[in-house]
Model the fold of this input.
Amino acid sequence: MTTEISQETILSRTSWLKRLTNGLRILYASPATAVGTTIFILFVLMALFGPMLAPYGFNEQIYTDARQPPSPTHWFGTDNLGRDVFSRVVLGARDILRLSGLGTILAVISGTTFGLVSGYWGGLFDEILMRIFDSLLAMPALLLALLLLGTLGPSENSVLVVILIVYTPIVARVVRSVVLSVKTRAFVEAARLQGESLGRILFREILPSVLPALTVEAALRFSYAIFLVASLGFLGVGVQPPNPNWGLMVSEARQNVSQLPWALYFPAGAIAVVVIGVNLMADGLKRILQAGD
Amino acid sequence: MKWNGRCIISESNNTLLSIRSLTIAYQHGNEWLEAVRDFSLDIGHGETVGLVGESGSGKSTVALAIMRYLGQGGRVVAGEVWLNGRNLLALSPTQMRHIWGRQLSMVPQDPLSSLNPSIRVGEQLAEALRHHMGMGQTTAAQRAVELLEMVRVPDPERVARSYPHQISGGMQQRVMIAMALGTEPQMLVLDEPTTNLDVTTQAAVLDLFRELIQRQNTAVLYVTHNLGVVARICNRVTVLYAGEQVEDAPTADLFRQPLHPYSQGLLDSVPQLGQHKSQASLQGISGHIPALGERPSGCVFAPRCTLAVDECYEKRPSWESLPNGRFVRCHRWAEIASGDISTRHPAQASTPPKPQPQSQPPLLTLDNVQVHFGLGRSLADTLARKPPAKVRAVDGISLTMQQGETIGLVGESGSGKTTLARAIIGLEPRTNGQMTFCQIPLPPTLSERTLETLRHLQYVFQNPEEALNPYLTIGETLRRPFITLLGYNRQQADTAVRHLLQQVKLPPHYADRLPHQLSGGEKQRIAIARAFATNPDLLIADEAVSALDVSVQAAILNLLAELQTERQNALLFISHDLAVVGYLADRIAVMYVGKLMELTETAVLLEPPYHPYTEALLSAVPITNPEVSQEHIRLEGDVPSQTNVPSGCPFHPRCPRYLGDICANQTPPWQTTRQGKQIFCHIPVDELQQIQKPVLREHHASEAHNG
Amino acid sequence: MAKYILRRLSFLALTLILTSLLVFAVTQFVPGDVARIVLGREAGEEALEAFREKFGLNDPLPVQYLRWLGNFVTGDWGESISTRSDIYPIVMERLRNSLQLAAITLIISVPLATLLGVIAGLNENRLADNLISVASLSVVGLPEFVTGLILIEVFSRRLNLLPANSSVRQGTPFMDALPMLILPAITATLVLLAYIARLTRAGVVEELKKPYVRTAVLKGLPYRTVIVKHVLRNALLPTITIIAISFGWLISGLIVIENVFNYPGLGRLLVFAIDRRDLPLMQAVTMVTVLGFALANLAADLLYAYLNPRIRLD
Done:
């Protein structure tokens, strides 16, 4: 008897695994999302194994090879300091994906916490928190980011804090709206009538219903975070040289764009490709997860 | 000779709409699955035909196919739809534009979403008149007002200038009717047009349909799941099950002698007004409607049919034409017609718990319970110190309930019945009044109540789709009450879950399933099982069967009665359906806008005197028994909003027996009749006794259904 | 309706107060001593103290906040730390430039985007829709500095049609400045275009599925009437809100675009201020932008409420 029911945990896990493989299968069913997912996976691999792929260091200056167009030795050419553009683009993947990924994860965690608590409790706490978030959202994202960076000064940690503060309210609102619609559902009320604890109600009864919307939102936030990190790099207020941030590379290459266009186009292209890829994937996720099972 | 005449007429020019072997498929992934198979029907001028089926039967699909509006996922695979000698399925969309509105109109189920939210009602009526009837701006606008008057909309000029959201649901449906009939089509398709309306409003709208259809000699296809509605309005009925037409007969014949086992089951699933569980339990139909891809190859009903023989599983029955104008699709119809076999068993009564006498200490008492709440106030309103708009959902209810008793609480939408239930259960804190449970004061909110109280006071929710967490297995859902409320360990809880599943007649392996793998009826069984897990003294069931198909509903009602017999618990059963309440309850409480109107033993419910509201309710309930006729009492207007409860007796603005100022100004007294009914009314009970006739009367069959 | 306007206005006031608090608070967290940052390392203790006294830095924070807010409301925005000049006239001039660019962008993008969105929505999953959807999805993914640089490369370097540098001088007549505005405006348009078109499409697709469309079709009305009179009336109403939301994108986009083209707007001024850690200038630019954004949103909300009978008649 116990064996029979303890199978259930395994069963529900296999059903999650099944869901994952099903999800991947559906992601690959539509050509657009298949391209997006593939791009995303390639860039993640690039971030993970970048140092093994890159022939040179990100700040390794080969004076003899400066200002070279793309060639078999330097696939993407070199910049005016003699740095290999291909190596910098490859190594930059880790930098930008780490910053935007970590920032997104932080924002998702804090946004989920705020959204769950605020949505379930309601009342004054909810009211105050939402007004604060409203005022954060009353500032265009980049403006808020610049204001914060102007205060904190340019550094990687500042960029993380910026992503956290800019995206927490957005994630919190998404989570909160799902919580608001779920908490009055009969199954949550039934749990209350069965004397369940608050923790169980929040995390076992409500959270699973939030996950689909949260996954989609996280994917979207991630793509905007990449965008933001690159834009801040371009404006010169985010991470500082010689970091191989693609936005920063574009900004540095602008001065010599007529002589060394490759130094600009390859990092710019990398940004475009990864953002479009993640966007396509988020679009697909949205269709799968929010169309119902 | 009579049937012969009928046949000649229907074969002649009188046929307006003729559907021939219509087969419709829906796309599921890469497959096309047949939703409706081989559907044939003739409708003559001025004839009203009911198309009856449960959810998933394909009845709305047929309606949309006739309208040529199936949408992208649907396709007519075969068949023809002839209207006035033209096959609609062969017409181009441009040609259809001359037919739509002019010859063929439709009234849909949900009037609010079917009206354009940002165009005034008058203009929505007038545009079709200008387009089809060649009217000018002013003529069309005037005619729109006349049409509103025709469908008995009070103050038609004002309504014509209104936007849809400004008028009530009943008014919106009248607007849809005016819109459909305004262009004087010959054929009208009605798709569940009264399903979302309250029963008193429904009765008035049905009267209106009957009158207008007769006046304009319109042919009607009336699509519904409600047999009572069919009985009231249709000349003939076609029964659809799982995409297959199973029976077609004149209405009275079908109700008197259904020939298909499914028709029989459907009729027996619905409790009649006055039928009580102690006399006979409901027959019902076991199992559930097969999903689109899982329909059996033989007779589609065979898996649920108690009369099925081998042939039924192997061979699809043909559409037999019977000499008296009837059709049936069953291998064994002749045996059924001769009375040799029947799905109907001799009545089997359940033995419900005997409620303890009133002298015993009560289980639950409510003393002047009120639930008032402010409408959502914004911060700005609070800052401006605006008094909140007050909703008087429950407005002073007193009631006692004995151990083992079943009380049925009946009321239309906005009566506050659900709020009262939620106040008792603790989900909606009362704002005033006292409650005791087992002679102990019951605190208003859930958090103040002990686990012991929760254990003895349980609830079954209305909608089984929402009652179970979609992400938890059935086993986990059912295990929780044993662990949290009874302190079982995991192993004990698992044993208990298996036992519980058995009691609600589900196999033990269901513990491993997720809710989406269950049918609606099975989900409601789980929800009931969860509520019974802790062996509560009082179970509150709020519209526990209203989201279910009728054939499934019967089984759930029986299950509730059975479990109650076994556990001897008290039951507060809440429903808008007087017949269902009457079937289960020992006593019935009638609620209207937050107040009790009448409290009566079920046995004397049908005997006058009644509260005038109860009288109107009894008269409005659609009944399926052709041997019974109903008194004709119709209420004006709609149930008032809870934010604006009428003074004095809340029923006075609609009361057909309105006395005068006393009703509008003074709270009525509680009076007791000879049978022990309690009535909240100014009219003395003796006077009521004199002026009221029994609402339901049995009479000779020949008088019935000649309209 | 009056109640709605009142509620909306009180909401606006609250948001602005909270935002100003935030702007003020953020600048309090600047590491180090403001006087020291401004006066440099060589400044003596006396000079520092005099500076603090002069700018009220020794007062308690609430007092500083109220004084700062009061000054802001009365137009006394103080002196820029880096340029030692009055902030108000600089910001106003830059604001004018930014508004000019924003206006041109909106005039091009809103009608075009709405049109594309409607076309895509009416042709759901057909060729036109797929083309528009894929194109807009790709443009959404491109950061403004990438699109801007591509446009410069094509129209300025290759074709030599338009200037790459848009550093308009003060007092340049509009017609002379116009060529310099075109490339930045196109860049901003591309961002908005994709965003607005995608949301408009979604609105049209959603609206087409509503039952009232069926009612209109089954009345036998001509297709054009059904679409124009029934569907678009409802589908285009939310576009007002969409456009309001897109102001946020536009502002973010313009900050980057102004820096790509060296256009003398608020965005460029802000990045300049951050570079120099010029706090009063940062505060002023931020407050002006937030105020503008909030007013634009308010206008959109009121227009929406006015056009929507479900709100207007409540």
The CA atoms of residues 25 and 257 of chain A lie 43 Å apart. Residues 1-13 of chain A have pLDDT under 50 and may be disordered. The two ends of chain A are 31 Å apart (CA to CA).
